[in-house]
Amino acid sequence: MSLLLMAGVVAVVGLCRRLARRRLRSHPRLCTFLLETISTFQVCACTNELSLLGSVEPKPHAALTLTYGFTVLHGLTLTGSTCNPCGILQPVWGGGTSVEMGGLKIGAQFVAAVLARVFMHFIWRLEIAESHFGVLSQGCSNPMQTTEVQAFCIELLFSVVFQLTVLQVETVKPSYRVHLIALLITMLVYAGGNLTGAIFNPALAFSLHPHCFYDNFLIYSLVYWIAPSLGKFLILYVF
Known about the structure:
The chain has helices at residues 2-23, 28-50, 61-77, 85-94, 99-126, 148-168, 174-192, 202-208, 210-215, 217-238. The protein is an all-alpha fold.
């Protein structure tokens, strides 16, 4: 049922993206905002659902396979969208995107993060799958299973590795590039998922763990917002 739910989200988002491109050609800013919003919504909604499947047998092979598969699917269906605030920093830094447009896209991503969480709460309340039972009664899932300093360093390191790899594979054929990036994300999730969740995406982190941000905003913003952004700035500074 979870797979059908995520497939439905992908299908609806794909339809909405096509409609937005057709109907909003004369309104580029609104079109950009909506495309980034619905694309990030897909990533956040699917990842929220995937986070419930970590205990599916055989562990961790099933969860990692799903992570790889849906990362490839996102890469193939969400072309042209960033879905990660850190990814907006590079074109803004290089002058390819105005600060105003960059802020618009980042705002769209966080709006999508909230909408995805609200939507998934509604779905989980229906308890249409066994994995949904009791989810809403849980508070902060506490993704940090290590010290705050180590968690900060892990998210910083993973962000650097991810962003550096993205730069290195820019010249690779898109159909191959999406698999390389998906493989890297899966490897990072395997390496650090049990320590921090290996998210390195501020909007996605906010969608996955809103209760944690509410309970301990300073620590979680440092680990899941500042660390990935700092990693991106390090890459931009060096390269």
